[in-house]
Structures are given as structure tokens and as C-alpha cells.
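Co-fold these.
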Amino acid sequence: MKFAQIMASGGEWLRGEGPHHQIVVSSRVRLARNLRHRAFPGWAKKAERVQTLEQIKPRVEELPEMQDSFSEFLQDLSALERQVLVERHLISREHAAKGIGSAVVMNRKQTLSIMINEEDHLRMQSIRSGLQLKSAFKLVDKIDSTLEGKLDIAYDQHLGYLTACPTNVGTGMRASAMLHLPGLVLSDLINQVIQAVNKIGLAVRGLYGEGTEAMGNFFQISNQTTLGEKEDEIIARLTKVIETIIEKEHDARQMLIQKKPDTLWDQIGRAYGVLTYAHAMTSKEALNLLSIMKLSVDLGAFDEDRRLPIDELFIETQPAHLQKTSQQKLNAEERDNLRAEIIRDRLKLFPKPDMDKVAREPSGDSASSPNNNE
Amino acid sequence: MLCDVCKCNDATVFLTQIVEGKMQKVNLCDACSKEKGVQDPTGFALADLLLGIGAAEEIEKGSPTQKCPVCGFTQADFKKTGRLGCSECYITFSEGLTTLLKAMHKGTEHIGKLPQRAFRQMELNDKMRALTNNLEKAVAEENYEDAATLRDQIKQLEHEMAS
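Predicted complex below.
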């Protein structure tokens, strides 16, 4: 499979059809594993890293789940291609910085991605649309079980799976969900939620994980600890917290409609206006305004068939995607112009947001979501 | 009071976070608190911070000259990177790591997934324990016929475990 095919298809999770997909963009579960008696990638000399890679890569490629996969050494990917993979959350920012001795293998649907020699020898990740942590875990757990039969995985009776960083030891699992929470941000409740989540031992992070800022009202929530708790317990606890946050987000949106409709209409009107007419736009501004457009679709101000074009713009307007699409390296100013052009073009046929529809059907979004009968 | 991170400026930011009943405290100077993103509540979790600071101190509880026999990793390296050298390091530095892991995680024992191989090993261990108990009992009861059978079974199991 070629890189062009990855660019061309959006990946299953981007289509957003999973449960609670309006608020939960995606669910991800990653497992960290290492080979016994081999130096971890950060400590190993180049020759040892290459040796480890040569041992692991064929085993990963022959997995039945990796039929027709995209498999590449990091040094064979251009800086731009790596950045595209980061923007799609298929590899980490750390992995994008790696060179000889590292590789990435992913399936065609882009639901599974395996990084070799990132911080650990193996980082296996599955991504699903909406709130589907359990099924995401199942997917990656199966692969882990197959691989452990072929590789000598470092494991300790007391400490579980041994990882380069002591924060991952035990299950080696990090489960996370990407949440879109404009309602809580607009009503100034987000900090309370973040503090509450932190207090129960879960982490809240920005769009691209550790150390990144929250943009476009996206927040990543994940488990912080990996030792002393079973995988399914961690996932159940996380899912419960996320369900509570979803409820709070719905409540916040209703409050905005009822108590602060002017603020809400102003936000929506401005987002629509600027996105439709601007000729230069930074990626941060685009994310923030597109977030409001996404909210508008959720609330019913735009028809449901406007959802996909908005969702696609989130990814397409990211810096590396822009440059990859236009087949050339662009400076910041050129990127901002091109970004605005793509958005204008996409919104050309959009009708004006219909605020009346929102007022008449205040609970329209949750009633139509597929999760009510869960 | 000095900053826990740079250890040269006076601490001006004092953080306390209670995670499931466990209190964690960190004192920071202005510059370090900004650098660690403490003032941005969205990106901040005390555990991340503690890992960078507490980790190196905890592991120092072991002998400073300790070196991992498999990969040559030392405590100084851990202090620098916050990562270990190889899986064997968990045994080499276990003394200091135990305290660290206790502060970091919910427990100190893994209760989650077992690799098939480890699972089989555990089953065999259980079987061995049962056989050994029975053998002792048989010997005590002077039931030598059973004891001989049990001894054969143990031998076979030992062979199985070695392969």
C-alpha cells in the first residue's frame, strides 16, 4: 500500500459513525511492549535498534490484520509525510522525529497502527470512531496476543509488562478519547471539569497529546496509571467518566440555548461569516471556528449532511495535509491563504445557519444521536 | 524554600493535588512553573511533574554505583532521561523503583493481562505445588506406592517446565 492511498482515504474513524460521535471524536487504546533483555530504543545503540527492528517488523507485517498494510521505515518517509501521519494521530510526534531503526506499520482502514522503536520496542494502537474504548481494546489485545507467541516479550510476575518509562509499567495500556466540548468551554465550565477529572487520577490533554495545548475545544482524556488495575477496569472507569462529561456537555449546550442565546448565535454567526469570507487563516483560528461550525451542526443550525464536509476540513486544513495536497512546500503565509481558500470553497454552497431550527428543537441533537438506546 | 525543579530559585508556586486519597506536593519557582505548564490548567497533571522530579531522587535510594548488568544503564542516566535502559533495569534498580511506582500508580502489583507463556508457567507452578504437597503427604502416611507415582509425575513436569 502506498502513501498516496493513505492520503486519499480518510480512515474509518474520521467518518465519525461511532456511538456518541457528536461529542466523542475518537477512542484510542495503545499497548506498550518490549523485548526481553534488549535495551529500550532510547538507550540502545543504532546497531541494536536496527537488529530489534528487523526482528519485530516481519512479525508485525505477517499479522492477518495487516494484510495489504502500509509499512515503512521512518527514514524512508519525508518530513511532510510523517507530519501527515501525526495530524491523523497514526504516529506520535516523538515517533515522527525518529530516523534509522524505527518503522511504522498500519492497516488500510487506518484503525490499527504499530510503531516500532518509539519509546518502547512496540507501541500498538487502535483507533475507533466515537466512544468505543472496549472494542478498540479488543482489537489491539488480539494483536498483542498473537505477537507474544512469536516474540519474547518482557514481562515480570509482579510488575507486569515492562516499559521504558515507569509510568507505563503493568498493563502498558493507555486508553484515551478525544472529546469535543465547545459547550463547556463557552459556558466557562471546562476548568471545573478538568480539575474534577484530574482528581480521580485521569489526565486531560490537548489535541496532540502530552504537552500540547487545547485547540478547537478538543480535549483528550486518558488513564494516568497502569499498575494495580486491570485493563477492563481502567476502560470501564474511563468510559463512565466520559459518559458523565458527555452529559455535562449536553447540559451546557442546553443552558447556552436557553440562557445565553445571543452569545451562542454571535459565535455561530461569526464562525460562519469569517470562514465563508476570510482570505487568510491560521490553523489555530481555523480549528476554533470549525469547532463552532461542528457545534452548529450538532444543534441543528445546519442540516446533518453538512457534518462530513466540516469534519473533513479539520484534518485537511492542518499544515502538513495542506502541503501534501498542494504538492509543494508552502511558507506560513501561503498556507494561511490556501487554507482560507479551501474552506471558502467548501462552504460556498452552505446555506446560512438557521437559528430558528435550534430554538424550536432544543433537544434535537441528543434525540437523534444513535446512543440513546444504549 | 527552593524550587523542586531547578533547585536555585525561591519557590513561589506551591501545588498540592490529592489523587484518590494520596497527597502529592510540589514547590516551584515562577520560571519552572511556566515551563512545566502549571499555569495552564488544561495541560497539567501533577503526576507528569512528579515523574520528572521525584523519579531521580527515589531511585537514588539504591547504591549510586549500581549498573544494570544487561545494558550498562546507571542511576545517573535515569536522572537525565526519566526512562530506564532495558527490562532487566526493573530488577537492578528495584529498591528505589518500588517507592517510585507506589507514588505513581494505583498499586504495586500487576493484576491485568498475562502473556500466554506466563500463564502457562503459572499453571505449571500450581500443578507442581499440588504434586509436591501430595508427595509429602504420601511419604508421611508411608504410602510409598503413591509416592513413587507422584515422584514420576513431578519428574515429568520438571521436564515440561524446562522445555
